[in-house]
Amino acid sequence: MAEDIFATLPRLPEVTIESPAALDALLRNRTEPVVIRGLVDGWPLVKAGRRSGAAAREYIVRHARDLPFTVSVGASHSGGRLFYDDRLGMNFQTLRAKLPEIFAQIAAGEDKPVAPPIYLASIDLAAFFTGLHEANHVDLGGRTALASIWMGTRTRIAAHNDVPHNLACVAVGRRRFTVFPREQFRNLYLGPVDNTPAGRAVSMVDFHAPDFDRHPRFREALSYGAVANLTAGDAIYMPSLWWHHVEGLDPFNVLVNYWWRETPRWLGQPQDALNHAMLAIRDLPDDEKRYWRDMFDYYVFDNDAGVTAHIPEAARSVLAPMTPESAGRIRAFLLRALSR
């Protein structure tokens, strides 16, 4: 069933990039995901991984700081899927260990047909390594990006989205991305918001065995989906909020990604506003919810000149275009209100 789904979906568009200026232009102008073939072919880590998984691990360990790493370890029978169990707990354990110990466990299962999935997710390159990022990085121009490394065995990560823009570079192994536009969230059957495998709500659909009786609208999502099969040296650009299901397909896989926002850092997180709205508005009587929907449209989504035209410009405060100072006032007000 899984191969039928992935085989029938269209492939994402592909480009090649010849210069940092060309990459900058693509990242500024592109509004949909795209595969960038060979973007990081020259990385020493990519070259080590092409020799073997063991060579890649040896190269990575040489740069690792002597710190405990957080690692997720699943069950051998999970097929690499790091997800919920039957009671909506997690079907994996979260442990801490030094990187050589973790890599020794990966090496021990590398040639076995069935082995527990082992996954190090979103490890901050600057905090946990010395020199690794400097030797293996993408020039993102003036963007201030968080650079992270993801390492592990064969894994399946449920469809989710991220608020920042994402440039994900495959350094070792192969990865498959299955992507959907932002507005397809209703057809992906999202799970809990506050109890998630990795901080973001995920699709409850098993892409390797979709239950169309239980999730019939997933067929609609598939009509908008696309697939990208990446090998070492390739990258994919994922604009903010696009949904993506990610699989590591080889016994050892490494991905380096960059997250950044085009909006100022001092702006709040939209997910926090959604969570607060669920707390404050969702369970109100319908007539009151209609009022608050109108208020959100007035102050947030429409936000036209009529909101402030009758208020002297110097007195518009947080109704004026946001600044670091007015953002700080709102944040302080919220902290006081939430602490009562």
UniProtKB/TrEMBL annotation:
Name of the protein: Cupin-like domain-containing protein
Species of origin: Sphingomonas mollis
Pfam family, one: Cupin_8
InterPro entries per record: Cupin_8, JmjC_dom, RmlC-like_jellyroll
Domain JmjC: 112-275
Superkingdom field: Bacteria
